Amino acid sequence: xxKIVSPQxxxxxxxxxxxxxxxxxxxxxxxxRHVVRVYRHLYYMVGNTAEAEDLTAQAFLQAWEAxxxxxxxxxxxxxxxxxxxxxxxxxxxxxxxxSAQLPxxxxxxxxxxxxxxxxxxxxxxxxxxxxxxxxRDEQRQxxxxxxxxxxDYSEVAEIMGKSVAAVRVIQHRALNxxxxxxxxxxxxxxxxxx
Amino acid sequence: xxxPELIEALAECLEALRQGExxxxxxxxxxxxxxxxxxxxxxxxxxxxxLPEELAPSPLFRERTRRRLVGGSNGNPLPPPxxxxxxxxxx
Lengths: 194, 91
Description:
The complex is a heterodimer of chains A (194) and B (91). Chain A has nine helices and no strands. Chain A is mainly α and 194 residues long. Chain A folds into two domains: 7-101, Orthogonal Bundle (Rna Polymerase Sigma Factor, Chain: A); 113-194, Winged helix-like DNA-binding domain superfamily/Winged helix DNA-binding domain (Arc Repressor Mutant, subunit A, Orthogonal Bundle). In chain A, helix 2 (24-46) packs antiparallel against helix 3, helix 3 (49-66) packs across helix 4 (77-96) and helix 6 crosses helix 8. The radius of gyration of chain A is 19 Å and the shape is globular. Chain B has one domain. Chain B has four helices and no strands. In chain B, helix 1 crosses helix 3 (35-46). Chains A and B meet through helix 2, helix 3, helix 4, helix 5 and helix 6 of A and helix 1, helix 3 and helix 4 of B.
C-alpha cells in the first residue's frame, strides 16, 4: 500500500530540496519549523510585536524568492533564514533612524536590588543589546542562540553547522568584542556625547 | 588564536551559571590563572538581556502568513509588504 508522506514528516534537507524546486508545501513546512526563531530574533532587534511580525513575514517572502540561491552544502537553512531576517531588521532600524528598546515587560530579568540599581542595569543591558546587533554575523548568531534562546552548545552547533569547539571559540570572540564595545560606549563616553 | 584553556574555562563557567550556579566567585576560583579575563567576560555575559521563553508570534499571524506563503486555494502570491520601507535582500 502506498503511504502518503506529509511535508511535516520530511527531513530538513529534503524539504529544502523541494522548496528549491518551488514546492510551496515544503516551504510551508520549513516556515512552521522556523517561524518562532525568526520572529524572536526580529523582536530582539525591533522591540515591537507588530513590526517583528511584519518583518518576519517579509523575511520568509524574501527567502521564498531567493531559495534557489541557497547553497545546500553551506550553512544550515535556519542560519541562512536568520541572516535574511537580520538584514531586514538592520534596514528597518536604519530607515527608522532610531534605536529600538525592548519593552520592560518583555525582558526576562532576574530580581535586582533597589530601583536605582534596576534602572542602571536596564541601561547597561540596552547598551549590550545594541552592541550584540553590531557583532559579526556568526558571533551575533552564537550570542543570540546561546544567551537569548538559552540553547546548549550542541544545539547551537547544529543550527550553525559548526562543531561545538568552533561555537565555543566564536562565543569567546563575541564576548570579547562585546566587552570592548561596551567599554568604549561606557557611561563616561555616553555622558560626553549627551 | 585565543588560549584554548581560557575558551574551555569560559564555556565551563557559562554552563555552570546556566545550570544554576549562583556565585561567579565559585567559578573564578576553579580557574585562577584566567581569573581577571574570565571575570570581565562573565560580567558582560550576565548583562545580555534575555527574552522570555513564551515570547512567540500570535497564532493568527502564523496562520495568516502561512496562508500567504503557501497560497490558499487560489494560489495568489503575497501582497506587497505593509511597511513603508525597502528591506535588504538576502546576502
